[in-house]
Amino acid sequence: MKRSLILFAFLFLSGIIFAQKRKEIIFPDIQGYKILKCDFHIHTVFSDGNVWPTIRVEEAWREGLDAIAITDHIEYLPHKKDIIADHNRSFEIALPAGENRDILVIHGSEITRSMPPGHSNALFLKNSNLLDTAKYIDAFKAAKAQNAFIFWNHPAWSRQQPDTTLWWKEHTELYEAGLMQGIEVVNEHEYSPEAHKWAIEKKLTMLGNSDIHNPIQMDYDFSMGEHRPMTLVLAKEKTIEGIREALLNRRTIVYHNHLLIGDNAYLKELFEKSVKIEKVSRNNKSIRVTIYNSSSVPFEIRKVKGNDPNLEFFRELKIEAGGYTSFTVYEKEPTKNTSFNLQLEVQNLLVAPGKGMPYKLAIQVK
Ligand SMILES: [Zn+2]
Ligand SMILES: [Zn+2]
Contact, 205 vs 40, CB < 8 A? Predict the structure, then answer.
């Protein structure tokens, strides 16, 4: 008895010491699609990263991701004296770790050229070695021949675009040849309004990725609520094919800090399914409203023009994530109205550069 108690205590304590926790990121399904949390731009020691591929899978699991792409550079291999391998190896090492953790691992590579056209990621490759070509265009064609999905990385990177984020004629050539299907609107800590604009105009898939080189916690302080940028993929199913189909059909939302960047229709449904008016009570000239937000993202709402001049309410309000938020609407002249519309903008749901999502919040007094 005593021995089993000691054993139990030991197991219990070691459980505490060694427990690994996954942080779940909560979003509702949209238009019947599951939201998969993905990072399609990750480096390991097999190019210029400082982390072994299996650790990338473990980091992704703990952060609540569903899929990652290992995208080591083809051309830039500063560790090649120590890490002698071909371009497929980092993916091959990460893949079984992903199977253990239920993290989809996508075979990718970063085509790393000077500007133009700069850097691009190719996903869903079969053999990365075929991208090791003298001319950049041959690397793109080799990726396309493997049915890859290709996107332009960090278009605003200051080392390649020192003053202005430019779209070069080489990008038009790639785009028209079907060799550029997406663009990073967010890379690492940087949002690019130009990339956002081009994605809308040219119907490119929007991506937000970490481009992580160090252990993830060196760049993001989870204790402060920080997270890596990610691409939310609206997928029919959690499979590699499900992700590919969604990327080809531009069903993504970029999640960066507290920003969600994407098409109005997706963001509107995400907001409406996350936020529920729990309680409305009237007290003479004031109406008290309580809202519940079931998602992992707070919403920053702001009053815009076009509101009923008899109503007085907040200028800005933060609807907290995973909890309740209350506010009061006052009537200058008391009425017996039982329904009110508030004209708002959700500032952190970005439908275009500098433009939050317009939203009419309908409130019903019960
Ligand atoms: Zn790059
Ligand atoms: Zn990179």
Answer: no
Q: What would the two tokens of residue 275 be?
A: 């936020």
pTM for the model stands at 0.93
Ligand 1 centre to CA of 15 (Å) is 40
- Contact between 19 and 67 under an 8 Å Cβ cutoff? The reply is no
Q: Is the peptide bond before 116 cis (omega within 30 degrees of 0)?
A: yes
- Give me 342's structure tokens: 């508030």
Tokens of 223: 């204790």
Q: Which two tokens stand for residue 288?
A: 């008290």
| 74 alpha carbon – ligand 2 mean position (Å) | 10
Cα of 189 vs centre of ligand 2, distance in Å, is 13
CATH topology classification for 274-364: Immunoglobulin-like (2.60.40)
Question: Could you identify the residue written with the tokens 């604009």?
Answer: 197
Compute the distance between CA of residue 175 and CA of residue 177 in angstroms, rounded to an integer. Answer: 5
**pLDDT at residue 284, rounded to an integer:** 84
C-beta of residue 301 within 8 angstroms of C-beta of residue 359: yes
> How many angstroms separate the CA atoms of 347 and 342, rounded?
15
How many A from CA of 40 to the centre of ligand 2? 10
Helix (H) or strand (E) holding 143: helix 136-145
Buried b (16+ CB within 10 A) or exposed e, 60-99: bbbbebbbbbbbbbbbebeeeeebeeebbbbbebbbebbe
Ligand closest in space to the Cα of 210 = 2
Q: Where in the chain is the domain with CATH 3.20.20.140?
A: 20-262
Is domain 20-262 in CATH 3.20.20.140, yes or no? Answer: yes
Between the CA of 200 and the centroid of ligand 1 the distance, in Å, is: 22
Question: Which residues belong to CATH 2.60.40.3090 in the chain?
Answer: 274-364
Q: How far apart are CA 357 and CA 223, in angstroms?
A: 29
Segments in the chain below pLDDT 50:
none
CA distances from 67 to 128, 206, 210, 233 (A): 19, 16, 13, 10
CA of residue 49 to ligand 2 center, whole Å: 9
Q: Which residues pair with 239 in a beta bridge?
A: none
The CA–CA distances, whole Å, from 279 to 271, 295, 341 equal 18, 18, 16
